[in-house]
Amino acid sequence: MGEIHVHAFMSLDGVVDTPAWSTRSADDDPGAPFFNDSTKFVVSSTLGIVEANTAWANSTVLGAYDPATIRRAADEVGNLYVSGSATLVRAMLADGLVDELHLCVFPTVRGGGPRLFPEGVDAFDLERSAADVYDNGVLYLGYRPGR
């Protein structure tokens, strides 16, 4: 059975933004080839297969959010790594789909923007699975949802 791991970049004040990897090259960011060349599953009720593949190579549209479809995809490929879409991540956490949450907290304050856990999100507990501090000041935190 595959696991689902979420990766999110956030500022100290909790703002999450997703870099537009499809337009980045190795010259822009050493991690870009990994994201661009990997198989991607897109959860969307509005985006079609042609648009997904045109926007980003190696993309497969799963359709609208459906926990069973996402779990099946994880089981078929072994593990899924979710990057971006705070709305999707919140739904997956609420439905018990997330096996591990990886946060990279950057030493900056954005002051506003989308948050992974905005006001009004139901409370839940997490258990720390990892922690590290990088030379550039980024704090890596790994959590497993409390079971």
From TrEMBL:
Per its UniProt record, what InterPro entries does this chain match? DHFR-like_dom_sf, RibDG_C
Q: Which residue intervals define the domain Bacterial bifunctional deaminase-reductase C-terminal in the entry? A: 74-138
Q: What superkingdom heads the lineage?
A: Bacteria
Any one Pfam family here would be RibD_C
Gene3D superfamilies according to UniProt: Dihydrofolate Reductase, subunit A
- Name of the featured protein: Dihydrofolate reductase family protein
